């Protein structure tokens, strides 16, 4: 019972007290700043802000566009790649893509797509006649198209992974064979039979993607519009202001952002119902259609891979550049100077990131294993656990992190590594749980029954049999938790009070106007650490149990 209680307290108490300490300042009550009277003047200030509704509309457009593009393109790819060599390619390459932090991907795309970026250099001056960077808004455009692209590139692999997992729970092959025996094309079977079932199963992951796209701050700060900014970034700017009155406006703005997320989730439920009704009516008509070729889907997949590879390649080139004038395709002079000097600015963020990520991922993994064991013993796999795990991912971070910061400041607990680790656990633990729960519950309990009958000790059997057999899913869950921690931006800033620097906080700060070569080195380390942990999580079980044939099945 200890593990569920501790886990629930770690997740729910910060959300509850953080939300309360954001709600009260939104109505003028902020005792820590000598404001003891409830008032609606904060909301009047919020609604009188000149570009507020532009920010709200921009947030809705970019968030919904990124989420829907990710979902639709993922469904399209699944339909055309199933049971092909592309499916095997996806299974092997999705994990490394997921390990790349959002901020790192946004910075890489910024270096690729900016007017002085590598794409423009590749076609200049021989095609464009540009000898200087054009005054184009290819990034940070007013419509947020570059922000949508960055979110799509990063969220599409996640949606693909979720859909592939959902496909493994459905009789896909049997459905396709049965549908084709009635002269339906495979695409019709997917669209009329399988897609409705898949959409029901990925409802919560889609809500997570939608909520993230609506509330993201670091990616919007790097590659999003600047006039106006998205609502989440606007709220963050208010919270960062030294003027207490603006911080109260930020509290009210965070509640408005929460309302945007809640209404968007409700709208998506309504759209889902309409879609399912439409597909049912369409399927009942019994109309047969010929299948279209999957060239567009394969082209989409190639475009995604190329954009990721080119983005990471240009980051690598910038890190070893000494002089690179526009429109040269490659640097005129190369140098390892910024790698050699990395110790002067990299060591503190690097060690902080490693310590926080390892600690938060390890603690989360221990708590999750304890909770799953408790669920198995109690035969309790209620949906309440999934809802609790998704709650920190669905709530906008700015809604409760400000309140958490206020409480920590009150007791002088802000600005140290311990509290930052605790803040990261709030977001790491749900991902560890969601990535491990399927494999853990699928474990054949007959192995444990046989081991207990021989050793007469449950925990001895647990340590000697169950954990070794679950080494691979445990390692992958740890790697996912590590990557999630490395990517955290707002929790580090709010709880660390600006005194705890990590690779992500430094990379985002440098992206706003720092030296591209220094930024590139920082981004490479930010990307490399999760990739190394992912690689170790995959390679270690293979090496450790290389002489045990059954451990590789």
From TrEMBL:
Location(s) in or outside the cell: Cell membrane
Presence of the UniProt keyword Transmembrane helix in the record: yes
Membrane topology value: Multi-pass membrane protein
Biological-process GO terms, alphabetical: transmembrane transport
Bilayer-crossing regions: 52-78, 99-123, 143-164, 204-224, 248-275, 296-320, 350-372, 384-405, 417-438, 476-498, 518-540
Any one GO cellular component localisation term in the record: plasma membrane
Superkingdom: Bacteria
Keywords, in A-Z order: Cell membrane, Membrane, Transmembrane, Transmembrane helix, Transport
Domain ABC transmembrane type-1: start-end pairs: 52-267, 350-534
SUPFAM superfamilies cross-referenced by the UniProt entry: MetI-like
Name the UniProt record assigns to this protein: Permease protein YnjC
Species per Swiss-Prot/TrEMBL record: Agarivorans albus MKT 106
